[in-house]
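User: Can you fold this complex?
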Amino acid sequence: AQSVSQHNHHVILSEAASLELGCNYSYGGTVNLFWYVQYPGQHLQLLLKYFSGDPLVKGIKGFEAEFIKSKFSFNLRKPSVQWSDTAEYFCAVNAPDTGTASKLTFGTGTRLQVTL
Amino acid sequence: DTAVSQTPKYLVTQMGNDKSIKCEQNLGHDTMYWYKQDSKKFLKIMFSYNNKELIINETVPNRFSPKSPDKAHLNLHINSLELGDSAVYFCASSQAGTGVWEQYFGPGTRLTVT
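Assistant: Here's the predicted assembly.
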């Protein structure tokens, strides 16, 4: 079974600072990887996803993530955060070639707080 | 147009009661899910249905019973509510066969059991 680790539980940054949130997964087979964002009081929205091809994927709102297969990592980055990026960020993985391909396993989330 | 909708948005009830949460998606997806998000924001899958058939059933008390009348709807009924059931419940949907299984989430139902 796959699992996901997000080591940063709470990150505080000033506006315009650069962001990198860590995500590591454990599964030896083919994976699809996702980053979701949850703004305060709202539902989860997809930021970006990786399923094949270029390991550097670009998402909405200036976010990007890089899949490094050898490190089992899929870190989220943004060069310059804004106050409106304050939210909870979730990394998730599924294993598309398994019998439970539809099952998304989430990390514990990272709370990002951007200060003015 | 709301892609995945849930009702109600808030639900406050007493221990021991039975309640239902409804979910509908208009994306034409064939797979639907229920997740529970606890007070620490941890998201855990509870159930998944594909074309009205149960395909994922995590370790969930049998007081929780999902029902899928058609592939656009997945309802969650909870019997004998307990304090520990207080959480935000999210419905989601995806389309099988794409190989990606990207999921779209509803707005959530905040359940408070007193």
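The radius of gyration of chain A is 14 Å. Chain A has a mean pLDDT of 92.
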